[in-house]
Amino acid sequence: MAFLAWIGAPVRSFLAFLGDQAHLVLRTLRSGLALRAGQVAVVGGQTKLQVRFTGLDAALLVAGMALLLGAVTLIQAFSQLSGLGAEHYIGTLMVVIILRELGPLLTAVLVIGRSATAIAAELGTMQLNGEVDALLAHGVDPYRYLLLPRWAGVLVAVFALVVCFDAAALGGGFLVARLKYGLAWGFFMDSVRQALSNLDFAATLLKVALFAGAITFHACHFGLGVRRSQTEIPQAVTRTVVSALAAVFVIDGLIAALFYF
Q1: Do 175 and 71 meet the contact criterion of CB atoms below 8 Å apart?
Q2: Residue-wise pLDDT tens digits, 84-129
């Protein structure tokens, strides 16, 4: 019985966590569908702030990281495929390694480290200060005012950052291809377009939507779970990072298996 209890405790905790995530998603969706005209401006303003913090403020960092990654990817590919016509595989390499996998995944990791931690800390502080209870006391739906703008803002920002990442990575890859083989921009982009498919676009959009949801609601779950003292806030931030990273990698693996296996 002790062994069964030892096995069952984490399973029960995990199922409770999934149930809470589903509850947060459903309540947030319901609050969004019930949004009235007079509330759009307030929710829209909060969403813009989230988009600016998560997306605009991180765009330069994402672009720089992607530029280097695109360049390094082709440098390594050329070093391993020298003499085998590596220039003919440029499009496939860029699509498979960067656009299909590393672009959405590394963008999500960056957003987790930069924005999910901030959301968890902010909501944890609001919970300790009684601000969430104050919203309820004044008849304001916390799901509509706190969760919905963050979800929408992270969704828009992740999509924009993935586009920025892919564009910068292609630019870095082209610089290496130009310097190494003297390839023209037209040839480079034709190679990428031939390797791309509608399946890649669909998989990327699905990743963006699921990554944004996982990042936001993991942060909201642990942030709103703060109850007693300030020492819980860094714990909530740590749990957010670990849990969101695990969720993102699992989602990425499931989508890869679903679309490309």
Answers
A1: yes
A2: 556 667 778 888 888 888 899 999 999 999 999 999 999 999 999 8
